[in-house]
Design a protein that fits this description.
The N and C termini lie far apart (77 Å). The radius of gyration is 28 Å and the shape is globular. It contains 11 helices and 8 strands. Helix content is 40%, strand content 14%. It has one domain: 3-Layer(aba) Sandwich (Rossmann fold), CATH 3.40.50.720. The longest helix is centred in the first third of the chain and has 33 residues. The strands form 2 sheets. Strands 3-2-1-4-5-6 form a 6-stranded parallel β-sheet, with helices on both faces. Strands 7-8 form a two-stranded antiparallel sheet. Helix 6 links the parallel strand 4 and strand 5. The chain is of the alpha/beta class and 347 residues long.
């Protein structure tokens, strides 16, 4: 190669390199310029997570957007504990009728007076119905009587459950575990079946089934002694999930949630107040009112969207669970139809 040819080749290479560098610089500047104009580039910000320990305006039962005016609510196990707190929340939201179903007890007989005392402004009716949910005949009679009276239940809260005595699942034998399945699964299944039957025979309306789940459904690391109870609650949550898959949201909104690790009267028989790091269930119980109204574009739905659980313009998630991922960790979990999205957003 001639010396000048070599020089020319080197020169051309240098020029090419410089041209490349200049073009790269221009691309970088253009990229920076584009980034400086938000209108030319859309960014998606992750939802901001705020942890709440008390009720706040968006979920308060007194919020106008969450009004339950004109609606009838039936709560199993509604005479005490979480069930009674849920009843109180619906009374606060102005429900027309709150039906409490539970075994005969002093708590059930005094439930109406206690709700009236807790919510003096409640204009509706409290109906206490004695019923042993472990007896199929009594559960059927409950729904037969409602039908005979022309009472249409708008919201069914499946709260009743029996934890049983603490101990190994198969001791003394399997029958004790099976008894829990009859109480916690069969009774609730019958109630859900009768409710769905009444919905299908009525005019289209916004109705809901709320299944009160358990922290054991989400965290099975500490279920020793309560394996049978945990199994029934897990089975019930799964049953509701699949029922939701079969049911149009516009017909019935089906929700499973758990109110946290709350120390209730029922737990006093098996453990003490100092045995665990208990949660305060007050804030979570008021979510029931919002959950029951998910079929409408209400303030509660907007709150779910604000938390990032539901995209704008999208129908709310069919199955939502409020509860622990682990000891001391709470979150609002939204699972979409394919079960592919799980988001912790609050607590």
């Amino acid at each position: 190669m001639h010396h000048n040819d070599a020089f020319d080749a080197q020169t051309r290479s240098a020029i090419a390199i410089n041209d490349y560098r200049r073009s790269s610089t221009r691309r970088s500047k253009n990229s920076l310029n584009q980034d400086s104009h938000p209108a030319k580039k859309q960014t998606t910000m992750p939802p901001s997570l705020t942890r709440h320990k008390t009720v706040y305006p968006a979920i308060a039962a007194t919020a106008p957007a969450l009004s339950q005016m004109g609606r009838t609510v039936l709560i199993t196990g509604g005479s005490k504990g979480i069930g009674f707190a849920i009843a109180r929340a619906f009374a606060t939201a102005g429900a027309a009728r709150v039906i409490l179903v539970a075994r005969p007890s002093v708590e059930l007989s005094t439930a109406e007076d206690r709700i009236k005392q807790a919510v003096p402004s409640f204009p509706g009716q409290v109906v206490a119905v004695p019923c042993d949910l472990g007896q199929v005949e009594q559960v059927d009679r409950l729904w037969d009587d409602l039908q005979a009276q022309g009472i249409q239940v708008d919201i069914l809260v499946l709260n009743a459950a029996f934890s049983g005595a603490a101990g190994p699942m198969l001791q003394p034998d399997w029958q004790q575990t099976w008894t829990l399945f009859e109480m916690n699964l069969r009774a609730n299944l019958i109630c859900a079946t009768r409710f769905m039957r009444s919905v299908r025979s009525a005019a289209p309306s916004s109705r809901a089934i709320l299944n009160v789940s358990s922290c054991f459904v989400h965290d099975s690391s500490d279920t020793i002694g309560f394996g049978a109870y945990a199994s029934t609650k897990t089975a019930m949550a799964s049953l509701m999930h699949h029922l939701a898959n079969e049911t149009p949201r516009e017909q019935v909104q089906i929700v499973s949630f758990h109110p946290g690790f709350v120390y209730t009267e029922g737990l006093q028989e098996v453990c003490g107040p100092e045995d665990y790091d208990w949660d305060s269930g007050t804030a979570f119980l008021f979510f029931c009112v919002g959950f029951s109204w998910l079929t409408a574009c209400s303030g509660f739905t907007r709150e779910l969207r604000r938390l990032g659980c539901v995209a704008p313009g999208q129908i709310p998630a069919r199955t939502i669970r409020l509860g622990q991922l682990g000891r001391g960790r709470h979150g609002l979990h939204a699972r979409h139809a394919g079960g592919c999205r799980l988001l912790e957003a609050g607590g």
